[in-house]
Design brief:
about 160 residues; 5 helices; about 30% helix
Length: about 160
């Protein structure tokens, strides 16, 4: 059974996205050979998608998530207040594989926010005890300009 949490991001959206997309947390070493892993670590600021096996953008391109989200805010004149919402979905040890975890995260995000908001879904693989997803949800709808209020009705 997954556990979840969800909270507003009041400052520094870029930091939150960078944390969620961190390749040291989203790339399983079993998918890389030693030389490639060392090369990827060396080019830590490189945004190539082959480093980020478990990062998915919904209604935005992962490499440009910050720009997409900020553009939506500017388009609707809502750059202040809560910038985004950051959430997690955590699974018990052995409950899911990395692929299953990420797919569940994508499906969850699409059901909850996919028709109105830009979302980044990442699966962190860096913990020994459990796999977990992170969600970064733009606080402004790209369709309507409506602000996400984090009430029960906003999660349906």
């Amino acid at each position: 059974m997954a556990t979840t949490g969800f909270w507003p991001v009041k400052s520094n959206l870029k930091y939150t996205l960078d944390y969620a997309e961190n390749p040291d947390k989203t790339t399983a070493e079993k998918y890389l050979d030693d030389d490639l892993y060392l090369a990827i670590r060396y080019v830590e600021n490189d945004d190539k998608t082959d480093r980020k096996l478990f990062v998915t953008g919904i209604n935005c391109v992962t490499e440009r998530a910050y720009e997409c989200m900020m553009s939506t805010k500017k388009r609707y004149g809502k750059p202040g207040g809560n910038l985004a919402y950051h959430g997690y979905q955590s699974f018990a040890e052995g409950e899911v594989t990395p692929e299953e975890c990420h797919q569940i995260g994508i499906e969850t995000a699409k059901r909850m926010w996919g028709d109105k908001y830009e979302v980044i879904v990442t699966t962190h693989l860096n913990t020994q005890n459990h796999l977990h997803n992170h969600f970064v949800v733009n606080s402004v709808s790209f369709r309507t300009g409506e602000k996400f209020k984090n009430k029960i009705g906003d999660h349906l």
